[in-house]
Design a protein that fits this description.
14% of the residues lie in helices and 35% in strands. By secondary structure, it is α+β, with helices and mostly antiparallel strands. It has one domain: OB fold (Dihydrolipoamide Acetyltransferase, E2P) (Beta Barrel). The strands form two sheets. Strands 3-4-5-7-6 form a five-stranded mixed beta barrel. The chain is globular. The structure holds zinc ion. The site of zinc ion (ZN) has 8 residues, from loops.
Amino acid sequence: MSVAVEFDKEARFGPEFRGFWDDVRQGRLSFPRCRACGKRHWYPMKRCPHCQAADIAWQPVSGRATLYTWSVVRHPFTEDLKARVPVTIGLVEFADAPGVRLITELIDLKPEEIRIGMQLQAVLPTGNEPCPKIRFRAA
Ligand SMILES: [Zn+2]
């Protein structure tokens, strides 16, 4: 039952995200990078939003990021959140992919410890979860 639900979640993102999830499963966090202009973008697109070229490849990042903004979610909007609220959601920007921002969950941090601009590190899932989650903790 829960596996089927997790697969449904992944299907919701669409095939353009397959490279992202394939790399996460192999322990890498990657974003699309245009081979023509060298810029990265998020989320996945068939053409580069900077130069319109269609020559795009997935390229790993280090996982180091800066906290751009954050909020605490106290209402369980989904069934799986009921046992987990409150959760801290952050918008992070990557050190080696300027301009790429990802909405994620911040872990192992109390709200009073969180500061905009703080350094974070991606925590990639281990194992073979059907829908892996990328979380961030203090670097
Ligand atoms: Zn480009």
